[in-house]
Amino acid sequence: MSRLELSRCKIESLSREAAFQNHSPEIASGSVLIVKVLRLSTDKKAVDANQISGRRRQRQSGTALVEFAVVFPVLFFLFIGAFDVGFFCYALIGVQNAARVAALYASAFPGTHQTDSASACALALNELQAMPNNASFPASCGALPLQVTLATVSAPDNTANPTIKVTVVYQTMRLIPIPGLASQMNIARSVEMRVRS
Prior knowledge:
This protein has 197 residues and is α+β, with helices and mostly antiparallel strands.
């Protein structure tokens, strides 16, 4: 059966159903509908369904490219910002560990270790060796990008054993320069421990 015969059969069955429901002889004949379908099916300017879907795909691929071009810079800067924040968090944890290790060392023995800032500096340098700017750390830990200071603080309960306070200051470097953000950040952490007797 051709397409024309199929459409004629469908319209005739639809017109019979309509006539049965409405009891109208005009609709039962379906002559007007059949003529319109014949005109549409024999029209030479009918567009193939594949051509229509191909045009839609081309239009959609263009919009997808435009959407990607608009969203990509935002996602790129979010990713870079998350990477920078991750580095700052890593530096914060490293500085805290360096202060803790230096305070443990200084509070281990009364007298000798309380003033040994060179050994505390070496321990802090060892903890922060994974930082990207560790080559610029001073050997004495007396200037930025790394400062380590030891201080003896009297115990709050006036006991014989004083408290050691170690402060570590680390100046970060920015891994990826983002306009509008600070280029460097100073991270300072202090740890107090009582000298063990």
